[in-house]
Design brief:
- The protein is α/β, with parallel strands linked by helices.
- The chain has one domain: Roll (2,3-Dihydroxybiphenyl 1,2-Dioxygenase, domain 1), CATH 3.10.180.10.
- It is built from 2 helices and 7 strands, in the order βαββββαββ.
- A 4-stranded mixed sheet has the order 1-4-3-2, covered by helices on one side.
- A hairpin with a 2-residue loop joins strand 3 and strand 4.
- The mean pLDDT is 96.
């Protein structure tokens, strides 16, 4: 038995948050929404970009993940920072990590998101 890789990351949002999630993950980050399988709950939404699969689930007791976070690898960190700032999202630098340029932001619900670019 071996772990082979990561299939997807799921973030929680409050009830009714799908449209805000779409505006952020598609409109700002440039991901694409994909259809969820018909046998799953109609609530929530799924996005993908390259090999990344991101699932948004509805949590009736939602509390944002302010420490745990996905780290999304991007190809133009400076452009993404500008797009986030232009859309009203704060970006925060952190301690350097060798081989990467990176910063943190939060989605519309307060979930922490790390964005990284290999140097």
């Amino acid at each position: 038995m071996a772990v082979l890789g990561l299939d997807h990351v799921q973030l929680s949002v409050p009830k009714g948050g799908e449209d805000e999630a779409r505006a952020f993950f598609v409109g700002v980050l440039g991901m694409q929404e994909v259809a969820k399988p018909a046998n799953l709950s109609p609530k929530g939404c799924w996005f993908e970009s390259g090999s990344l699969n991101l699932h948004i689930g509805i949590d009736p007791d939602f509390r944002p993940a302010t420490k745990a976070h996905p780290a999304l690898l991007v190809d133009d960190l400076a452009d993404l920072r500008k797009r986030l700032n232009d859309a009203g999202y704060a970006t925060n630098d952190d301690m350097p990590v060798e081989g990467y340029d990176r910063f943190f932001t939060s989605d519309p619900f307060g979930n922490r998101i790390e964005l990284m670019q290999k140097l």
